[in-house]
Amino acid sequence: MTPKPQTDIVFDNVSKFYGEVLGVNRVNLSIPPGVTSLVGPNGSGKTTLMNMIAGLLHPSRGSVVVCGVEPDDAEQFFRMVGYSTQYDSFPRGLTGYEFVECYLRLFGYSAKDTQRLAWEAIDRVGLREPSARRIAGYSKGMRQRIKLAQAIAHRPRVLVLDEPLNGLDPLARAETIALFQALAAEGSHVLISTHILHEVDLISDHVIMMNQGYVVAEGQIRGMRDEISEHPMQVLIRCDKPEYLASQLFGEKQVVEVRLHADRAGLLVRTRSAEGFYKLLNHIALNGVQIESVAPADDDAQSVYEYLIGHEESTR
Q1: Full set of structural domains in the chain with CATH
Q2: pLDDT tens digits along 157-196
Q3: Are 166 and 86 in contact, with CB atoms under 8 Å apart?
Q4: Per-residue model confidence as pLDDT tens digits over 100-117
Q5: Left (φ > 0), alpha (ψ -120 to 50) or beta: where does 62 sit?
Q6: What does each C-alpha distance from 217 to 43, 127, 266 come to in angstroms?
Q7: Sign of dihedral through CA atoms 14, 15, 18, 19?
Q8: What is the pTM assigned to this prediction?
Q9: Of the candidates 39, 160, 146, 149, which has an alpha carbon nearest to the alpha carbon of residue 88?
């Protein structure tokens, strides 16, 4: 029986120290294909984690295996991983096309295939016309996109992108996010680091939250929020009788707080038992309250991260 190919990126009890400075500590992860966001403030360990995935750093302890390949296999790693750092570093005088094409030569493609792959990558990031110009004259957003073109040009299985959306205008951001999602749909790993939490919900299939070198949570945002039982969940309700609904909710044991919206057309409710609260709400709705909408108010990366970091720092 043929063994099933390894598709995950696996960290097994990984720590990385720079002398006495902690990079990351005791990381255990299994990252599936799709779009994965690494979330955390500067200095949280995101770049260290990404550099180990790209084979640029070796763990001080533990092991990293990327889709069944260990970083010591440098040639296979080079072909499998595409990497774009957050820093600009371009050879002087190169055009955008030359920057992508000269990188592809390292893989030993024929001249015809090198040209084809270069144009394919440049077209995917929307830089066909500017690619004939020197990178020195590019805007920040264009430099970000030409780096992305180079990273995807050899069609890697794993794409590692450090702050790839910095400097992009709204249209370019939307197009780039669509590209990430298309690459993920093709079966690739797309790992993105960011400290802009409001984008994570839109981009990601999977989220890894980091703080001070530790992984504080990982998974889907909604699943992580459900596990934070010590923090009351906030729910927004729009209805036709908000004052009456508020009076019915006061005093119920699963309800922590009820506040009317400023427009007096709905409520913000905090509850320690989402399941019990929704059952209660269904019962009230059957007794004459027309509910227009019910939505979690804190089922997002920003809220989850703030809850987790506050909890981690208070217990560490």
Answers
A1: 9-225 (3.40.50.300), 232-297 (3.30.70.920)
A2: 999 999 888 877 778 888 898 999 999 999 999 999 876 6
A3: yes
A4: 999 999 998 999 999 999
A5: left
A6: 17, 37, 33
A7: negative
A8: 0.71
A9: 146
